[in-house]
Write a structure and sequence with these properties.
12-stranded mixed β-sheet; 12 helices; 12 strands; alpha+beta
């Protein structure tokens, strides 16, 4: 019997990729009237040229359920329903530096942290770790992750934490072209110029609303099979997968992808209406929605993006509703920025692996 969980996982992955891509990024030609979809595409391509920017990400979640018998559900839902993550930072891809300040509130517990990144090192300052690990160095110091050492542990070659710019642009361009081609022009609505607040300053930007419904999601999923049979897209998908799972080898990825292809062929023989009917047994599309508002300035940069995603999962009499709200702002785009990476030494930093082995030692001994 076909594994619906695999198909659902693929569907959710495609859904989230589409959401991220549509929200990412219009180089408009003077005097040329462009459709909202063209403006979104051009803005995304324009944002690939962004080298420096300051940003804010404000994210909140909620989880509710009906007839859920899992004893852990109430705990998880209460934790998520009181959660909020706010990130403020700045990036300079040309100098290969980034600085991020985080404020996290989960389940009524709040903590702050800082992250500094250059091409070889990630340095984290999370003061609450000093109390949790009973190590005063962590209260004001940094946990340092050396990328060379990390790759050595993973058995891979050295890596630049900022990646290969040319390859990343190629990846992003190919994926956004594929997915935007699947979205109908009717999904995009130009609401004209709006006054918005970015970094405590008012500015004007063109507001474009995007609504993705059941029909669009079905089109995206129906075309997924064609895409996963495209060798170039498979290469891009592997790059995305290894971001979250760096341990996965290409052979393992190819084996999983081929297995999925065989299962689809054997069980549905290209009948994707049947595939989607199985997905509808798990996702209640009457109560599922994806709504986004993008704000594009006169330089064709997305300066604000608001995403409101509601996913309703069901299983017989049980239903679970997950809501995700994300608002991102960007300013000082391609303007000179100063990012000071702190000096790291033995007195103000702890190697990640030292901390890991120290923690494991405390657990087992």
């Amino acid at each position: 019997m076909f594994n619906k969980r695999k198909m659902l996982s693929l569907f959710v992955a495609l859904l989230m990729i589409t959401t991220v891509l549509v929200g990412c990024g219009s180089k408009s030609t003077s005097g040329v009237v462009k459709t909202p979809k063209e403006m979104v595409y051009d803005a995304f391509m324009n944002d690939l040229d962004v080298k420096t920017q300051e940003f804010k990400v404000d994210m909140s979640m909620s989880l509710s359920g009906t007839n859920v018998n899992d004893p852990q559900f109430d705990f998880i839902s209460n934790m998520l329903n009181n959660s909020r993550i706010v990130l403020n930072g700045k990036t300079d891809t040309a100098a290969k530096k980034a600085e991020i300040n985080a404020n996290v509130n989960i389940g009524g517990m709040s903590f702050e942290g800082k992250m500094f990144i250059n091409d070889r090192v990630i340095a984290l300052n999370v003061p609450i770790l000093g109390m949790m690990m009973n190590d005063p160095r962590l209260a004001t110091g940094y946990v340092v992750i050396d990328s060379d050492k990390l790759m050595e542990e993973l058995g891979q070659e050295q890596v630049d934490l900022f990646g290969n710019d040319e390859e990343m642009v190629k990846l992003a361009t190919k994926i956004v072209e594929m997915y935007l081609d699947l979205l109908e022009e009717s999904m995009f609505k130009n609401n004209g110029k709006k006054e918005i607040t970015i970094a405590n300053s008012n500015t004007n930007a063109t507001e474009i609303d995007i609504n993705i419904g059941e029909t669009e999601l079905k089109d995206i999923f129906t075309n997924a099979y064609t895409m996963i049979n495209d060798p170039e897209f498979a290469d891009l998908l592997f790059e995305l997968v290894t971001i979250s799972n760096p341990y996965m080898t290409r052979a393992e990825f190819d084996n999983d992808l081929n297995s999925l292809r065989r299962e689809i062929d054997q069980n549905f023989d290209g009948d994707f209406d049947k595939v989607f009917e199985q997905i509808k047994e798990v996702i209640d599309f009457d109560n599922t929605s994806i709504k986004m508002s993008l704000y594009i300035n006169d330089k064709s940069n997305i300066v604000k993006a608001v995403s409101d995603i509601s996913l309703n999962f069901r299983d017989n009499e049980t239903s679970v509703l997950f809501d995700l709200f994300v608002e991102t702002d960007a300013w000082n785009i391609n303007q000179p920025l100063t990012i000071e990476i702190p000096e790291l030494n033995e007195t103000n930093s702890v190697d990640f692996y030292e901390l890991l082995f120290m923690y494991l030692g405390n657990v087992y001994y």
